[in-house]
Write a structure and sequence with these properties.
The complex is a heterotrimer of chains A (316), B (507) and C (348).
Chain A: H1 10-34, H2 42-67, H3 75-89, H4 94-115, H5 120-139, H6 150-157, E1 159-160, E2 163-164, H7 165-183, H8 185-195, H9 197-202, H10 207-233, H11 245-254, H12 266-285, H13 290-309
Antiparallel strand pairs in A: 1-2
Helix pairs in contact in A: 1-12, 2-7, 2-10, 2-11, 2-12, 3-4, 3-5, 3-10, 4-5, 4-10, 6-10, 7-8, 8-10, 11-12
Chain B: E1 6-15, E2 18-28, E3 33-37, H1 44-51, E4 59-64, E5 67-69, H2 74-79, E6 82-85, H3 97-101, E7 108-109, E8 112-113, H4 115-128, H5 145-158, E9 163-167, H6 175-190, E10 194-198, H7 202-208, E11 211-216, E12 219-225, H8 231-239, E13 264-271, E14 275-282, E15 287-291, H9 298-305, E16 313-318, E17 321-322, H10 328-333, E18 338-341, H11 345-349, H12 356-361, E19 369-370, E20 373-374, H13 376-390, H14 406-418, E21 424-428, H15 436-451, E22 455-459, H16 463-469, E23 472-477, E24 480-486, H17 492-499
Parallel strand pairs in B: 3-10, 3-11, 6-9, 9-10, 15-22, 15-23, 18-21, 21-22
Antiparallel strand pairs in B: 1-2, 1-4, 4-5, 7-8, 11-12, 13-14, 13-16, 16-17, 19-20, 23-24
Helix pairs in contact in B: 4-5, 13-14
Chain C: H1 5-12, H2 14-33, H3 40-65, H4 73-87, H5 92-119, H6 124-142, H7 152-158, H8 162-169, H9 181-184, H10 188-205, H11 208-218, H12 220-225, H13 230-256, H14 263-279, H15 291-311, H16 318-331, H17 335-339
The chains are: A mainly alpha (316), B alpha/beta (507), C mainly alpha (348).
Chain lengths: 316, 507, 348
């Protein structure tokens, strides 16, 4: 019996394999240095997934936008702005406030890209800069003194049946995104619009609404991630979102989603996130200095994309 | 032929399981104007791409003046003197005409491109194709399609070809330009250049060519000199079987007062300078044709009706309601549903990278959903229905639609629209570049749909289709309807005359 | 129809022309508002702060012309500046060698980018995202902590006016020669950027390879069918981009007399380079624009920040105003969509 994996699933399979490789390599390292294999313990894996949930939620939103062939460079400061306004408002309205910020930013991004037809790269970059400006002006450049609300702490740090709540949140977001992409007309319209916008438009798809919707989802995810991260750190702080932008893009692409849009499965993004978070974690266990981490990070991405690319002979 | 300039032996080419060319032997002799005939899918464009270095053959050899050669890139083919004027045009829109004409081998000074010499060269070549009105400094994107084709010809000439390939080179040209091309080809023939001429217009082939080659299903069928075969014989070679009456029977014309209120009524439609006051009406059960030369507003009219244009003036009544749809989305979901089968199926009709099933469902998400969620069984049912109704030949519904042949791709586009059960169907040259068998299926389908009570408005660049399919024809010229013909009054003479805006009776 | 040459140039270079106009307007009013405006000292200070981003913007232009993007330009600049902080000191021969090696290293990195994109068939944006990380990692290896040393004379000479340059190196009569006078007050960074633009960019643009870069961004399929050297052009675009980034890194090292592997700074330079490219009239879709425009775009960005110093605006508001100005500036492109009558034209 011939075992073949469809072209779409190949990156996911390869990435999953690589996750196993990293786990084994890391375990080999810890075995040789300390004689333990903490990487294989459930405690470690749960911890990993808990910290991975922030990136995971950002990547889920970013995937929607990348599927359209666009990009959302406003995630860092949407995340931060949502977090800061949420803690400033405090109390029961914290979470809704954060989501409202996400909604507003998403609508703005969607408007600029879908209606003004400004390339998403530059428009979302501008929005990110404006949000940073707003937050700096608001907070005077310091971390806000307000602390995370009890709900935030619960979502980020508490456990339910022994599993961190953050993982449940990530799982819920994943379920929603996956269902949207595979089971709704809106989701299929995203693929169609990303594949060829003109043909999608002439098929009667409301492409502008689709674009706005995707950007709204992306910003909402960033805002939610901001809430979780605030809970985890007990407060919001300047620049808290900066570390998520490039890894989110990398996770989506490593999961097999095409950067130009139209192709990709959510399970791939999940695998991509786990890969990146695991890699980071193993590197810090190995006490790899930042220089080495960056180089390995970059090399892994290039290496995996080269492997994916070998399977695609595209005739022009 | 031992005196051939270039010979191809045993050429084969496969694409993802499709046999584009199979064991083709072909040669062209210097000083000839050689026509290549065949339906789309016959392998003509694949052969052209191999000849011009865009593709590599999977098997076979090429001999240039007797010596075996390979052309790994278009550049190599050009250097060998084989120059192609592509149907899709190889011009760069954001560069100037002068840049484009000398694009890969410009005159140089101190190693850098000599702009002045380039412009002088462009002017010379443009004069040779009698297009002195084109400014060499203009960007190609500023030019109309017919000017671009002439620039493409000038560019090909500039390469000093020994073999010149023209792939549907005259499709958008004015009659004056077409005459220029004819004269050019005769000059080249006298100079010993071998010209390969691909065209679907038999009268052109007849006027120009001395040798004809017929291709079918990826194979070279026969090559013969002009005059050796009748047109009917040639067509038989092209489609492999005897040609019979192609068009389904037309129902008898109803008297005007019995037709009822038109489903689609257009009065004084204006847009930019492309539509200059169009009056049109289509009733239920009618197939109305749009005729005329390319570029007289037919495409714009259909786009306007479908809601894809802004700032359109005039009065439009669709199914009793006034006003044009604001977008294709509202056109398809209005009380009187409209569908448009667009001009270019590859860029406007299909999402090529997506599966056949997704393409089929692209207009019908509302129909196959319960609430916000797609019901998989409804979706599968709809896909199967569409494939069956139009007899689309596929491997699996999950295959990307780009693996289908042109005819089957067009069927996917039509099936997509039939799924919404439209009341008005607009078609923009639906059978362009499609094999004869599928064409007939489409004609039959159109008549069936009309008989079910739908209103059909369709533009065709083929007179035979207009004559065979339509109940009425409106011929456009300069964005206006210059002639309306009905039933048996629709003849080739009347259509041609109207297209050229000649009053037949006064002539 | 043959249109007059000037009018034609304007029509075909609308983005660049408007950027130039905007820059002139902004810089003129800046100098008028500045208490010591129109003086050599202010010009020198402005030039010093603009040179590096101008080079990085030039570096970003070529990949954008191809229709792609280079997310590693800031990192390559950082890497080369760290390398320079080791090498650009000692004897004159050592200094020159160090400078050459720095530029070579940047070009080599750009070459690697090009090879990965072309032969690895990876989209530029994601390939350079990864190589940018590698570049920063290498920079951290080269300079784990900020430091290093750059020749003092060089630092002085290149960050002041031509007069000071001549004085430092003792030619043209210590800067007083009559033939030097017309340009004596021009800041050296301006000369440097102009020289690189004239000696590298202009010849490249006028070459077939350079033209191919534009052709690829405009219509890659027809470019291939026309027999243009696609692979060579793509690799060259990234390699030259690496060279320009190295120019920026070298200048930064000389200007600050040190090397600093600052990840944030690298990221900021990269994003600013994208903004500069867009402001300068180059289209993110490819095929239209030029490095000269990107220099103008970089200058516009910097002039806006200069305003803050003289207008005494609350520093806390500066990032916000910068962001709004950027957003508004790029939104100008939106006006054309309002004039589009055939909605299909909106989709490329």
């Amino acid at each position: 019996m011939r075992f073949s994996i469809s072209a779409e699933n190949r990156p996911i399979a390869i990435a999953s394999l690589f996750i196993v490789v990293i786990l084994l390599a890391g375990t080999a390292y810890t075995l040789s240095t300390t004689g333990n294999a903490p990487l294989l313990s459930p405690k470690y894996l749960l911890q990993l997934l808990q910290t991975g949930s922030f990136l995971g939620i950002c990547a889920a939103g970013m995937m929607m936008v990348i599927l359209l062939g666009h990009i959302d460079l406003s995630i860092p400061w949407t995340l931060t702005a949502a977090a800061m306004t949420a803690t400033a408002v405090g109390g029961e309205l914290a979470l809704p406030t954060a989501l409202a910020v996400g909604l507003a930013v998403g609508l703005l991004n969607g408007f600029g890209v879908a209606y003004l037809r400004i390339p998403s790269m530059i428009f979302t970059l501008g929005v990110d800069t404006v949000l940073r400006g707003l937050m700096v002006a608001q907070t005077g450049g310091f971390a806000p003194q307000d602390s995370a609300t009890p709900l935030m702490l619960f979502l980020a740090k508490d456990r339910l049946f022994g599993i961190p709540v953050a993982i449940f949140v990530w799982a819920a977001v994943s379920a929603v995104i996956a269902i949207i992409l595979t089971r709704t007309g809106f989701g299929r319209s995203i693929y169609a619009t990303g594949s060829r916008e003109g043909a999608a438009y002439l098929s009667g798809i409301r492409t502008r609404s689709v674009i706005v919707g995707a950007f709204v989802i992306s910003s909402l995810c960033a805002a939610l991630a901001g809430v979780l991260l605030t809970g985890y750190s007990a407060k919001a702080y300047q620049g808290m979102g900066n570390a998520f932008l490039l890894p989110a893009i990398a996770a989506v692409v490593l999961g097999g989603t095409h950067i130009l849009g139209g192709r990709g499965r959510y399970s791939g993004t999940l695998v991509g996130v786990i890969l990146i978070v695991l890699l980071n974690s193993v590197l810090s266990i190995m006490q790899m200095p930042e220089a080495g981490r960056q180089i390995i990070y970059g090399a892994v991405i290039i290496g995996m994309l080269l492997v994916y690319g070998r399977n695609q002979r595209v005739t022009s | 032929m031992s005196d051939a300039i270039v010979e191809y032996r045993g050429i084969s080419k496969f694409f993802a399981g499709i046999r584009a060319l199979e064991n083709v032997d072909f040669a062209c002799a210097p000083g000839s104007i050689h026509a290549i005939l065949g339906e789309n899918g016959a392998g003509k464009s694949t052969l052209i791409k191999i000849m011009s270095g865009v593709l590599q053959p999977d098997a076979g050899e090429i001999r240039l003046e007797g010596r075996p050669v390979t052309f790994p890139t278009p550049h190599a083919a050009n250097r060998a003197g084989i120059v192609c004027m592509f149907q899709e045009l190889s011009l760069i829109p954001d560069l100037s005409v002068a840049d484009n004409i000398s694009i890969s081998d410009p005159p140089r000074r101190f190693g850098l491109i000599d702009r002045r010499a380039q412009i002088a060269r462009a002017e010379e070549l443009l004069a040779r194709v009698r297009c002195e009105d084109v400014d060499p400094r203009a960007l190609v994107r500023e030019l109309s399609l017919s000017r671009r084709q002439m620039v493409e010809i000038a560019k090909a000439l500039g390469r000093g070809p020994k073999v010149l390939i023209l792939d549907e080179a005259t499709s958008a040209l004015t009659s004056r330009d077409v005459q220029t091309v004819y004269d050019l080809l005769k000059d080249l023939k006298a100079e010993g250049v071998a010209s390969l001429f691909i065209s679907h217009r038999m009268h052109e082939v007849d006027a120009l060519c001395d040798t004809l080659s017929v291709f079918r299903n990826g194979q070279h069928i026969e090559t013969f000199a002009k005059g050796e075969k009748t047109e009917r014989e040639i067509v038989k070679l092209m489609i492999g079987r005897d040609v019979e009456a192609q068009f389904p029977p037309r129902p008898p014309q109803r008297a005007p007062d019995r037709r009822g209120e038109p489903l689609l009524k257009v009065q004084d439609l204006r847009w930019e300078n492309k539509l200059n006051g169009i009056d049109l009406a289509v009733c239920r059960g009618e197939i109305v044709g749009l005729g005329g030369l390319d570029g007289q507003g037919q495409k714009e009219l259909l786009l306007a009706l479908f809601g894809a244009l802004r700032d359109v003036d005039g009065e439009v009544v669709v199914g009793g309601r006034k006003g044009l749809p604001s977008s294709p989305a509202s056109a398809k979901s209005a009380a009187t549903r409209m569908a448009l089968v667009p001009e270019d199926r590859k860029t406007e009709g299909l999402m090529l990278g997506m599966p056949i099933s997704d393409n089929l469902l692209a207009a019908s998400y509302a129909k196959i959903s319960r609430g916000p969620f797609i019901d998989p069984s409804l979706a599968r049912q709809a896909v199967d229905d569409g494939i069956r109704k139009l007899q689309i030949k596929i491997g699996s519904a999950d295959d990307p639609v780009m693996t289908l042949s042109g005819g089957n791709q067009q069927k996917v586009v039509i099936a997509k629209w039939l799924m919404i059960d439209p009341d008005i169907i607009l078609l923009n040259d639906p059978t362009r570049g499609i094999d004869v068998g599928t064409k007939q299926e489409i004609y039959r389908l159109m008549r069936e749909l009309a008989n079910e009570g739908k209103a059909i408005l369709f533009y065709s660049s083929d007179y035979a289709e207009l004559i065979g399919c339509c109940d009425r024809v409106s011929v456009l010229y300069g964005g206006r309807v210059v002639s309306e013909q009905e039933g048996d009054d629709i003849t080739e003479e009347s259509l041609v005359a109207a297209s050229l805006n000649i009053d037949v009776e006064a002539a | 129809m043959h249109v007059a040459n000037g009018k034609r140039w304007l029509f075909q270079n609308l983005g660049f022309a408007s950027a130039l106009l905007l820059l002139l307007a902004l810089y003129l009013s800046y100098n008028m508002l500045h208490p010591r405006g129109f003086s050599s000292a202010v010009a020198v200070q402005n030039a010093n702060e603009t040179a590096a981003i101008a080079f990085v913007a030039m570096a970003q232009t070529l990949p954008v012309l191809l229709g792609g993007l280079d997310l590693s330009v800031g990192a390559v600049m950082t890497l080369t500046s760290c390398i320079a902080s080791h090498l650009v000191n000692g004897s004159p021969a050592e200094i020159l060698f160090g400078m050459a090696l720095t530029l070579l290293s940047g070009t080599a990195f750009g070459l690697m980018n090009g090879l990965i994109v072309v032969y690895g068939r990876i989209q530029p944006i994601i390939a350079t995202l990864a190589t940018g990380a590698i570049a920063i990692g290498l920079a951290l290896l080269v300079r784990p902590k900020p430091g290093g040393d750059v020749d003092g004379d060089l630092n002085w000479a290149l960050t002041n006016s031509v007069y000071d340059f001549a004085e430092t190196y003792g030619f043209a009569d210590g800067g007083n020669a009559w033939w030097l006078q017309p340009i004596a007050n021009i800041p050296v960074p301006v000369i440097l950027v102009a020289l690189v633009a004239i000696l590298v960019w202009v010849p490249f643009r006028r070459s077939v390879t350079g033209r191919t870069v534009y052709a690829i961004g405009s219509a890659e399929g027809p470019a291939f069918m026309s027999g243009l050297p696609i692979h060579r052009a793509k690799v060259a675009a990234f390699a030259i981009g690496g060279f320009f980034a190295a120019c920026g890194g070298l200048y930064l090292a000389i200007q600050t007399s040190s090397g600093n592997a600052d990840i944030q700074q690298a990221g900021a330079y990269t994003l600013n380079s994208i903004a500069a490219v867009v402001l300068g009239g180059t289209s993110l879709l490819g095929g239209v624009g030029s490095a000269i425009g990107s220099i103008v775009g970089a200058m516009i960005l910097r002039v806006i920040s200069f305003y803050f110093r003289i207008l005494d605006i609350d520093p806390l508001l500066q990032p916000l105003i910068e962001g709004i100005v950027l957003l508004v500036a790029v939104s100008f492109g939106a006006f054309r969509t309002l004039r589009v009558k055939n909605k299909l034209d909106l989709f490329r």
